[in-house]
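Re: weekly structure request thread

Next one in the queue (110 aa):
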Amino acid sequence: MGSTSFQIRLTDSALNDLQEIDDYWFLHGEPERGEQHVRNLIETAETELSSPLRAQSGRPVRVAILPDTREILVLKGSYKIIYRIDSTEHVVHILRFWHSHRDALDLGEK
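Done, posted below.
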């Protein structure tokens, strides 16, 4: 893989997850908390997954349809960042930001 940094790209599903996180905290009267969670998740994805070594160290997702789909736990294990590595393009596609208390994850969509 080399040492070239990966670009981070968010899929529509990942963007929807971030919007749902922000909406949840807004509806519970803590909009600043939602904004902070969203910022932390994006910053963590960019920091952790732009490194090819770190991105490859993520745990493979067993039920994934897409090849090379991995996950890392972040924010004290409260969230999973689900991602797919495209090593030929040097891109990590963030598929989902998934809270640990949500129902089972469906990775059938891109």
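The longest strand covers residues 91-99. The CA atoms of residues 58 and 71 lie 5 Å apart.
Next request, please.
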